[in-house]
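Continuing the series of single-chain predictions for the mutant panel. This is the parent chain; the variants come on the following pages.
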Amino acid sequence: MTMKNLNMPQSSRGFTLIEIMVVMVILGLLVAIVAPNIMGRSDQAKVTVAETQLTNISKALDLYRLDNSHYPSTQQGLDALVSRPSGSPEPKNWNPDGYMKSVPLDPWGSEFQYVSPGREGPYDLYSKGSDGQDGGDGDASDISLWNIGN
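Parent structure:
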């Protein structure tokens, strides 16, 4: 050791290996406790995002109906909210600015499903969930506008 190190107080020499190991053990325990709680939330977060997107699309559909006295047909689809649709029924008062800038994909990268007239109401609007298939359980189940919050 040099003379400089001998004259330094004990506390200013740095951390000991034991102190560093204690900190690492504490951090490891925190990660072990917190990580499982966070990891399971990503699937639920995607379901919540899908529900919010369904609600936003529904509001745009309602604005479309207010202007045109009807919802877009199944053939016209959700694209009728972005650009003026062709076909029947013709939108007589379609907003030149559209009703949405773009129709979002669901959190799993698939298109939302739209059917008009619907079985649940004037239209059915839903996502097929994480598996992209009809039906399913958990986050793979269909998420319908009509069963949000149920």
